[in-house]
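From the pipeline queue, job 12 of 40. The input is one protein chain; the requested action is below.

Action: predict structure.
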Amino acid sequence: MCTNAILGAVADTVAQSITSIRLRALRKPGGIKDSDTIAIQLHEMDSKNPLIETELIPDSKTLPPPFDFERTTRFMAYGFMMAPVQLKWFQFLTRAFPITKTSAFGPSMKRMAMDQLVFAPVGIAVFFTAMSLAEGASRRQITHKLRDMYLPTLKANYMVWPLVQVINFRVMPVQFQLPFVSTIGIAWTAYLSLSNAAEDAIEARSAPSSPNIRLA
C-alpha cells in the first residue's frame, strides 16, 4: 500500500512537471520559441493525441499552481486505498486460472482478458469518480467527466495494458504483480493525472461566471 502510494505521488509529480514546463514556456513573451525544445515536444504531443479532442494540457490561464500538493496527496491516497483491491484481484486471477508447467500461455491470456474486460472498465470509472469526489465535484460534474473522459481513457488503456498484463501474469510471481504494474503504471497514472486536470480546466472554462452585484 505504501509502495503504491509513493508511485502514485511520483506519477502525479511527473504529470505536474510536464504541465509546469509548458506553462513556463507559454507565459514567456511571445509564447513558445524554437529554443524551447521540450515545450515544443509537449505541444506536439497534445496536438497529435488521437484520443481526445481537447488538449491534454489545459490552457495556461486555467492551470493550477505550478505544483499542487493537494492533488498529489489525492493520488497517494487513491493508490494507498486501491492497493488491497488490486492485490485481491490478482490473487483471484491466480486461483481462477492457475499456470502449470504444461499450461502457461493459455491461463495468462485468460487472466489478461478477464482483467481487461472486467477490472479495467470498472477501475477507470472508479478513478474518475473518486478523484472528482475528492475534489468536491457535484454529481453533474462527475457525470460530465465520465461522459467526456471515460471512453477515450478506456481506448488508451487497451493500447497499453493488454501486453503489460500478459507479461505480468506470465512472468511475475503474484506478490510482485502489483509493484510491477504500479511501476509500469507511472506513465499511465501521469496520463490519467493530466487527463483529469485537463477535464477540470475545461469544466471551469465552461462554467457560467457569477453575476456582478452592485452594492448601493
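Job complete. The two ends are 57 Å apart (CA to CA).
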